[in-house]
Amino acid sequence: MSTEYRFATRCIRAGMGADVHGAARPPIYHSTTFAPAEATAPQSGDDPPPLYTRYGHNPTLYTVERQLATVEAADAALIFSAGMAALSTACLALGRAGVVCVGNAYGGTLDLLTGQLPQLGIATALLAPGEEPGLEALLADGYGLVLVESPTNPDLRVQDLAALAQLAHRYGARLAVDNTFATPVNQQPLALGADLVLHSATKFLGGHSDLTAGAAMGAVDIIAELDAWRRQLGQTPSPETASLLSRSLATLEVRVERQNASALQLAEWLAVHPAVERVHYPGLMTAPDHALAERQMTGYGGMLALDVRGGLSAATAAVERLRLFLDAPSLGGVESLVTQPARTSHAGMSDAERNRRGIGDGQLRLSVGLEDPEDLRQDLEQALERL
Ligand code: PLP
Q1: Phi/psi at 281 (nearest 5 deg)?
Q2: How far is Cα 280 from Cα 312, in angstroms, rounded to an integer?
Q3: CA atoms within 13 Å, Cβ hemisphere of 378
Q4: How far is the CA of 85 from the centre of ligand 1 (A)?
Q5: Is 197 close to ligand 1, i.e. is its CB under 6 Å away?
Q6: DSSP state of 42
Q7: Residue nearest to atom 15 of ligand 1 (CA)
Q8: 83 lines ligand 1 (CB under 6 A)
Q9: Looking at the annotation, which residues are catalytic?
Q10: 330 CA distance to ligand 1 centroid (A)?
Q11: Which residue's CA is minimally distant from atom 2 of ligand 1?
Q12: At what angle do helices 373-384 and 311-321 cross, to 10 degrees?
């Protein structure tokens, strides 16, 4: 969609073609198959004629893919059946010469790199925080895909995306950024030089904890490489899921702006709480990456982590006392969630590996929702006061 419109307008209007009934929002095409010779609707843009839904050739999927492209200011986008479908497809399409993950990342991503990809003979390397200087040697060795999150899961460190893109490109490699935590409202990796943006759309893009989807955005030729794999692996979501995501993208900016504001407020309050050893949030002036975050992001997101004094048992006790923050995996929805990475997303990791990655036993990760921030603060206060 024309860049004459600003972000929020594009989120709502991108991909919305004229409807025979004048519907304000796009219909859901449940059909698995289409007869192009019978079609009377004018074909829009460069989309192939609707043909078979698994191929992604379905008007409902086209609509949401236009919205997905526009939120990341990309030339092309694909919707997937889950964030892991987007991530694994990206590795298969672009990472056969080797995938290196820099910094902390979602446990499932790390499992893919240490478990499944090596079974296919794909070389993988994980550089824990502090080991970034090892990247250049791996690139010189021929690794073809650098994969990063920023901010990282669960410790909210910020990666220098422009510097990583430059380094990768010097060696003919590509940079893929999992932008799930930041969201495109706060950070635009393609403008910083990344080749591909990936999302668990299950999170902030979906925003209501009622859909599972993934997304990939980038240049037309890169997206075409992923498209071939998506089609063969059958990683296309249902039209119903695509329609739910389309609805969600229309409200992305207002949701994330509220989550940014509430998370910053809570981070500042937690940072001086006696039961809290440390708060991880790039928006805090005291955060180690604050200067980089200020340069690279326009807001700091709805995710934050805190290290509770007293380790695992104190953190577990706090989780049990919380009433508004639900103890559940996932993130980015309207409701606030809490997780204990050492017991959930990173439980599969050895204690030594978790320590190497700076994920303490007393760490709690909060996904700040759209509730009144004062109610959230009071909930945290009553949970922490007896520690
Ligand atoms: N990337 C990040 C940063 C995540 O947190 C997650 C899931 O929690 C994923 C990818 C995987 O997404 P999905 O669960 O939609 O497959």
Answers
A1: -160, 120
A2: 17
A3: 5
A4: 10
A5: no
A6: P
A7: 83
A8: yes
A9: 54, 106, 178, 203
A10: 8
A11: 106
A12: 130
Q: Which atom of ligand 1 is nearest to the CA of 330?
A: 8
Q: Cα separation of 185 and 71, whole Å?
A: 8
Task: Determine the distance separating the centroid of ligand 1 and the alpha carbon of 106, expressed in angstroms.
Answer: 7
The proportion of the chain whose per-residue pLDDT surpasses 90, expressed as a percent, equals 89
Confidence of residue 241 (pLDDT cuts 50, 70, 90): very high
Over 70: is that where the pLDDT of 197 sits?
Answer: yes
Q: Using CA of residue 223, residue 228, residue 233, residue 236, what is the dihedral sign?
A: positive
DSSP at 190: G
Tell me if 214 CB under 6 Å of ligand 1: yes
State if residue 281 touches ligand 1 by the CB under 6 angstroms criterion: no
Spell out the alpha helix ranges (H) of the chain: 7-13, 59-71, 83-94, 107-111, 117-119, 135-140, 161-170, 220-233, 239-249, 252-271, 290-296, 311-321, 351-356, 373-384
pTM over 0.70: yes
% helix, strand, coil for the chain, step of 5: 40, 15, 45
Tokens found for residue 226: 């992923």
pLDDT at residue 1, rounded to an integer: 59
CA distance to 137, 196, 258, per residue, from 100 (Å): 11, 15, 34
The angle at the Cα of 260, spanning 202 to 336, to the nearest 5 degrees, equals 55
* 200 within ligand 1 shell (Cβ under 6 A): yes
Residue 130 burial (10 A CB sphere; 0-12, 13-18, 19+): exposed
Q: Do residues 383 and 322 lie in contact, with contact meaning Cβ atoms separated by under 8 Å?
A: yes
* CB neighbour list of residue 43: distance below 8 Å, 6 or more residues apart: 49
Ligand 1 centroid vs 45 CA: distance in angstroms? 31
**Ligand 1 pocket check for 153: Cβ under 6 Å:** yes
Residue with tokens 């049990």: 320
